[in-house]
C-alpha cells in the first residue's frame, strides 16, 4: 500500500516575518502589514498585536484603535513573492516528487502553502528548520 503525505505550512504571519527579516528593529514589536489608510485591511499582524484583539482581515482603522502603538507597514507583494519562492525552493529540495504533485494554496488574507508528496516518510522537520532559517525565525 502506498502512503501519501500532505504537508500544510501555515504562513499566517509570513508577511510579518519577511518585514522582520528585512529590518531587525521590528523584532518583538506590535506590527501590522496591509493597507495603511483607514479603509485598508490588515493582511498580517504580529503575534504581539493579537493580545489587543487584532487579527488578519480586520479594518486597519479598527486595528489601530485596538493597538495604537502598532507599527503599520504597507505590504509589498513583490518582496513577499520573492521570499515565498525561497520557501518553495526549500520544500522542493527536501520533498521527493515535488514538481509532479504540487498544490499551492495562498489566499491573500491568510497565506498558506500545501504540498502533496508520495514520499515514504514525511520530511517536515528538515523543511521547517530550513524555512525558519531562510526567514530568520530561529
Radius of gyration from CA coordinates: 16 Å
**Straight-line distance between termini:** 37 Å
Strand content: 15-25%
Query: Could you estimate the helical fraction of the residues in percent?
Result: 25-40%
Q: Structural class of the secondary structure composition?
A: alpha+beta
Segments where pLDDT lies below 50 for 5+ residues?
100-124
Task: State the total count of DSSP E strands.
Answer: 6
Describe the sheet with the most strands: 3 strands, antiparallel
Tell me the series of helices and strands, N- to C-terminal: EHEEHHEHEEH
Please outline the helices and strands.
Elements: E1 5-10, H1 14-22, E2 31-34, E3 42-45, H2 47-50, H3 60-66, E4 71-73, H4 77-94, E5 102-103, E6 112-117, H5 124-134
Parallel strand pairs: 2-4
Antiparallel strand pairs: 1-6, 2-3, 5-6
Helix pairs in contact: 4-5
Amino acid at each position: 500500500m502506498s502512503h501519501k503525505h500532505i504537508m500544510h505550512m501555515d504562513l499566517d504571519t509570513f508577511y510579518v516575518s519577511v518585514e522582520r527579516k528585512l529590518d531587525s528593529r521590528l523584532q518583538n514589536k506590535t506590527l501590522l502589514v496591509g493597507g495603511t489608510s483607514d479603509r485598508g485591511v490588515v493582511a498580517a499582524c504580529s503575534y504581539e498585536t493579537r493580545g489587543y484583539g487584532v487579527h488578519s482581515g480586520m479594518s486597519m482603522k479598527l486595528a489601530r484603535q485596538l493597538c495604537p502603538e502598532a507599527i503599520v507597514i504597507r505590504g509589498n507583494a513583490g518582496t513577499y513573492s520573492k521570499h515565498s519562492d525561497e520557501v518553495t525552493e526549500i520544500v522542493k529540495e527536501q520533498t521527493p516528487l515535488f514538481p509532479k504533485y504540487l498544490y499551492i494554496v495562498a489566499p491573500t488574507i491568510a497565506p498558506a502553502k500545501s504540498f502533496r508528496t508520495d514520499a515514504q516518510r514525511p520530511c517536515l522537520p528538515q523543511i521547517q528548520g530550513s524555512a525558519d532559517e531562510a526567514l530568520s525565525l530561529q
